[in-house]
Amino acid sequence: MSKHILMVIGLVAASVVPASAETLSLKVMGQPAGSGLIANNKEKPFFENLAANTGIDVAVAYSPVDVTGIPDSDGLRVLKSGLFDIVSIRGPQVSRDEPSVLGLDLVGLNTTFAAGRKNTDAFKNYVDGRIQEQFNAKLLGVWPAGPQVIFCKPEITGLDDLKGLKVRVGDQSAANFIAGLGATGVPMPFGEVQQSLSRGVVDCAITGPASANAAGWPEATTTVLPLALQLAINGYAINLDTWKKMTADDQSKLEGAVAALVDEIWAYSEELYDDSMRCNTGVEPCEQGKPYSLKEVPVLDSDIAVVAKAVGEKSLPVWAEQCNAMSPNCEAEWRATIGKNLGL
């Protein structure tokens, strides 16, 4: 066979190599860099090493949302636009664009990690359907930042002391709950909270102990009330156009790897909560955070009862009206899934 024919065969063979043999390029927008150890120790390394973690021939450009300059409330819009292929969705922040997301984590619903896992597993398929329909994106998994507790600059002894105070909240469900206590809920990006507490723009703020520790909130507060209002459910979603370009094998590998990451974060979030509460209140061992000396307020049975009643009396009715306005079957699907778990 002549060299010319061999060259032609080689050129033809090269021209018919399937597109899947090319390296897949993914742009990933992550959690804020300052939001804590879940982002820095789990999420960032996972995506930066996605090829090794999945076996997919992929190159990833990972950017924390606060580095991009994009508001974290725009996560779903960013997915729809295709500006990023995968987004680490901040659930409370994007719930105004898609209210069904908030149905995963109404105030009073997920007061423990076990309850949160059961409730999110029950409702996430509905949320996925809504995100696919409205934002051209597929939900790959959901996970908790951790129990959302109350940090205050003035000393408080319980929920009653919040009356008349300004409280930073992460979503509408928390805002409604805080309003019911006679306080004012103030929506505010996470990165602005520490300074706002220092300057008295807000008196108190709600987040997880690990995030508060990482962002230095104990430097601007005196008291923490470890009463879990929510779990701050976040998630990972991929643009459907990007998803459809992937081979079935690569799709399966990505789903499996993200599922494993999500499982890891659920366990890590619980570990972080315990350690961060010790760190924030000056108790040893403090292994993963910075030690502070906040006063930990004992949780009253009466306050636990107020939060427990919030789902049926405040969180669900207000949220259902908002969600049904966007999707008429939203409340019915919630009651058939999470509501069934709760006996509602």
Describe this structure in words.
With 344 residues, the protein is an alpha/beta fold. The chain has a domain at 22-144 and 231-274: D-Maltodextrin-Binding Protein, domain 2 (3-Layer(aba) Sandwich), CATH 3.40.190.170. Helices cover 49% and strands 16% of the residues. The chain is built from 14 helices and 11 strands. It has helices spanning 3-15, 37-48, 50-54, 65-68, 75-81, 91-94, 113-135, 172-180, 193-199, 209-215, 240-245, 248-280, 301-326, 330-342, and strands spanning 24-30, 58-64, 86-89, 137-144, 149-152, 166-169, 184-187, 204-207, 223-225, 233-239, 295-296. The strands form 2 sheets. It has a 6-stranded mixed beta sheet with strand order 7-6-8-5-9-11. Strands 2-1-3-10-4 form a 5-stranded mixed beta sheet, sandwiched between helices. Helix 8 links the parallel strand 6 (166-169) and strand 7. Helix 2 runs antiparallel to helix 12. The longest helix has 33 residues, at 248-280. The chain is globular.
Brief write-up:
This is ABC transporter substrate-binding protein. The protein is about 50% helix and about 15% strand.
Strand order of the largest sheet: 7-6-8-5-9-11
- The CATH superfamily of the domain at 22-144 and 231-274 appears as Bacterial extracellular solute-binding protein, family 7
Quickly count the helices. 14
> Can you write the helix and strand succession as a string?
HEHHEHHEHHEEEHEHEHEEHHEHH
Task: Compute the separation of the termini in Å.
Answer: 78 Å
Please identify the structural class as seen in this structure.
alpha/beta
Q: What is the gyration radius calculated from CA atoms?
A: 22 Å
Low-pLDDT regions: 1-20
Question: What is the second-level CATH architecture of the domain at 22-144 and 231-274?
Answer: 3-Layer(aba) Sandwich
